[in-house]
Amino acid sequence: MLLHVPDVLTAAEVEHTRRVLDAAEWVDGAATAGFQSTLVKRNAQLPEGSPAARELGELVLRALNNNPLFGSAALPGKVFPPLFNRYADGEAFGNHVDNAIRQVRGTSQRLRTDLSATLFLSAPDEYDGGELLIDDAYGPRAVKLPAGHMVLYPATSLHRVTPVTRGARLASFFWIQSLVRGDAERSLLFDLDMSIIRLRQQVGDNEAVVSLTGVYHNLLRRWAEL
Prior knowledge:
This protein is an alpha+beta fold.
């Protein structure tokens, strides 16, 4: 499932994030790449664990905790501390698949990357190029979203970032270990949850809505891994 999650950050939060990023020091993005990714990754990144990365990462995590669409789609068990990158001057990231396991720097904490997320921090008219291309069953899907919006997609996906030929593309990226490992099961639960919400808005909590809610939770109980 590939999902556009709008308005994860407010305009004020995006503005604050941009001010912090503008004042921050950047390093070579290859620092967090796996062996294969290092060969095709050309960008800059905030150092993991730097004061700016910690402050902005906590801001993003708070926003995610308050976003019901993200919660319904991802069913997050663990979220990797958000990272931040910048593409400019022709920088790009070639075809790659994200590492299956990520370890939080400086800790023993590891998580399985079921889902990948990119939270856009630059408006589309601020830069040319920089599309996130994600391959799915229908071919490559180009993603270039407004600042504060996020795309969520399976971490198993082959994906890439096209060269930025004007301006700079700023984003936060991170991974989620879901309570439900399989993308097919998560997608079914998400569709069911959205249908229940729409029905509740139309008819209230009648007997059918309560029954469907029970089905949702019984399926979640069957598939969830804690």
